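Practice problem: predict the structure.
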Amino acid sequence: MMVMVGVVVIGVWMMEDNDIEVEAKARIGDHEDICRMLESRGAVFEEKVLHRDTYYAHPSRNYVSTDEAIRVRTVIREEGVEYRMTYKGPRLDAVSKTREEVEVGVDSGEAAGKLLERLRFKPVATVTKKRLFYSLPPLKITVDDVEGLGRFVEVETTAGDNWERARDGVVAFIHSIGCGNIEKASYLELLLGLRDADADKNV
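Answer:
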């Protein structure tokens, strides 16, 4: 499906038969140890990607209170650059980041940002991640180096009504590769928390 919005061409990506993203992550130390562990479990390295995610505040709804998010993502690969706009719904549980996700491809990240700003959305923060992608069906795994936050391993899959079972499997896998506590906060929340802490120090 193609939609023309100003100068932005949008192609809608739909998850196959499912619309719930089941995702959890944990902090790690040496990312090379984790990569070796993943490969020993049969995970296949796919690619190295840079994600630059700019998040926006809604003009009349507090996304912190509603636990929603909207972002414009720049995806940088060796072969080129692409852009995506994503809406994330409220988390469905207190353990993981299981939530509805709607994502569209856009022709220009700059134009997508301008579109949101014309609708009175305001940019809040940008999260930059160097990501190593691994595949271990039905799991997708990334080893992330997040600017200002450190390193994490993130595991995700998709599910329908039976998302709790999928969540338990994701969490169990993270523990099975030697990671400790699940990090419940999003990268955006962690980054904003650091920014607020730094601001308090300067008061």
